[in-house]
Design a protein that fits this description.
The protein is α/β, with parallel strands linked by helices. It contains nine helices and five strands. Strands 1-2-3-5-4 form a five-stranded mixed β-sheet, sandwiched between helices. Helix 7 runs antiparallel to helix 8.
Length: 287
């Protein structure tokens, strides 16, 4: 198979990303990416808990691209890739984290069974709250206000990676930035020149090529993309109808206010109907 001649699927497609990084057979690839993000060794990656989209219906209405991984001594991790901006992404990340954390304990269990949980967001856009930060990778913990170096607990850890902020990063010296550029565009010439230094990245591209050459998988990807396009169209049409309905309701309220004033001026109901467009019955009810 000649990868160079093959049209690779977009890794930012939810099914493609999830199948590449959420499949247990690719745990070495996912583990390597996690080790770069967390800046420490990641071993024994278990992706079997992850509910891959391939196991669900293609008409899933959620836009959430979510990969669950368990590794090392029971640490849990949630990896999400978002290509569209969400206003409350910070609350969304905390929600994902809290779901992972609270699912670990049952009534009567000791709190010491709780293990650290990590939530990772890979964003294909700049996050508004972080526009003043140049770093493409930021890490968030619970810290003491007056002593920022003092972390209360390492059980909560949020990582945000903003792809647009890697434009001027030297990927020869920063392998994580190299991976993000690969996710952004697997056929990026700059990535191809520097990927020889990373066996896992080469393996990831080979796996993507395999998926891209599978006609059944491509049909699934196309079907999912078609469904999402239809959903966006339906939502746009619904919004337009809602706006028109709201405008009509607003016009109706305005007409009623005018009619009331004209009634106070003793104008004949028939004339008021001609001026406001309301029916005579509607005007009678305003008396």
């Amino acid at each position: 198979m000649n990868i160079e001649e093959l049209t690779l699927l977009e890794l930012k497609n939810d099914i493609v990303f999830q199948e590449l990084f959420g499949n247990q057979k690719n745990s070495k690839i996912t583990g390597h990416l996690l080790s770069l993000i967390l800046e420490r060794d990641v071993n024994n990656v278990n992706l079997d808990l992850n509910k891959r989209m391939l196991g669900n219906r293609i008409d899933s209405k959620t836009g959430r691209l979510d990969i669950r991984a368990k590794f090392n001594n029971g640490e849990d991790c949630d990896i999400e890739l978002q290509v569209a901006s969400y206003e409350y992404m910070d609350k969304r990340m905390l929600d994902y984290w809290s779901q992972m954390y609270t699912l670990k304990i049952n009534s009567g269990d000791d709190y010491n069974i709780l293990k650290p949980c990590i939530s990772i967001l890979i964003a294909d856009y700049k996050i508004e709250k972080l526009l003043d930060l140049e770093d493409y990778h930021t890490v968030w913990n619970l810290r003491e206000r007056n002593h920022p170096n003092k972390i209360l607990t390492k059980d909560i850890e949020l990582h945000i990676l903003e792809i647009p902020k890697i434009r001027n990063t030297d990927i020869k010296k920063d392998e994580l930035a190299l991976w993000l550029k690969f996710i952004e565009n697997p056929k990026n010439k700059e990535v191809e020149k520097n990927m020889e230094e990373s066996d896992c990245l080469k393996q990831a591209k080979e796996e993507l090529a395999y998926l891209s050459s599978d006609p059944d998988f491509k049909r699934l990807v196309d079907a999912r993309a078609g469904f999402l396009r239809d959903q966006n169209t339906f939502e746009a049409v619904g919004m337009e109808k809602g706006m028109k309905k709201g405008m009509k309701k607003g016009e109706k309220n305005k007409a009623r206010k005018i009619a009331k004033k004209l009634l106070e001026m003793k104008m004949p109901i028939k004339q008021i109907a001609e001026v406001t467009g309301l029916t005579e019955e509607e005007i009678e009810k305003l008396k």
